[in-house]
Design goal:
By secondary structure, this protein is mainly β. It contains two helices and eight strands. It has a four-stranded antiparallel sheet, with no helix packed on it. The longest helix is centred in the N-terminal third of the chain and has 15 residues. The protein is elongated, with a radius of gyration of 19 Å.
Length: 155
């Protein structure tokens, strides 16, 4: 019975894992750190794909906080998608990943710049490292999409 429960638990864990890794670059033979390249499709604005590069340390209690993000339009972006996003100035978290057993995580937050009709994706660490909260920004303009709203001309 215990063995069956263990197998079911492991199977459920594996089914829930999504392999979003698209690259893995070793930082050298004498280090246990790699740069992992992952992709993330925005769960609401599915026409946006972000690629995130972050350092991961094997056999370590904490991964470095540095990361880089680049987001692009890879499909259709519709007004219906925009209607379903948080338009507050703090936006909403679209992805998070634990980077430490000490409560450090990397988050990606989507923020809508309505004036410039641009989606901003902010990747950041939730724990201060060397006097700084590490972060990176990428933007996706809505120009040329169905979601773009032409603004009245000012006279």
């Amino acid at each position: 019975m215990r063995k069956t429960l263990l197998i079911l638990a492991l199977t459920a864990t594996l089914v829930g894992c999504e392999n979003d890794e698209v690259g893995d670059v070793s930082l050298g033979m004498f280090t246990m750190k790699d740069i992992k390249l992952n992709h993330l499709v925005d769960p609401v604005v599915s026409g946006v794909t972000c690629h995130v590069a972050s350092v991961e340390a094997n056999l370590s209690f904490s991964d470095p906080s540095d990361s880089a993000i680049s987001c692009r339009q890879t499909g259709e972006i519709t007004p219906e998608m925009l209607a379903n996003i948080d338009k507050s100035t703090s936006g909403e978290i679209v992805f998070r990943k634990s980077k430490s057993i000490f409560f450090k995580s990397m988050k990606i937050r989507r923020i809508f710049d309505a004036k410039n009709q641009t989606l901003m994706y902010l990747s950041y660490s939730t724990k201060e490292t060397s006097g700084s909260f590490k972060h990176s920004l990428s933007t996706v303009p809505l120009w040329g999409t169905k979601a773009y709203q032409s603004q009245p001309q000012k006279h």
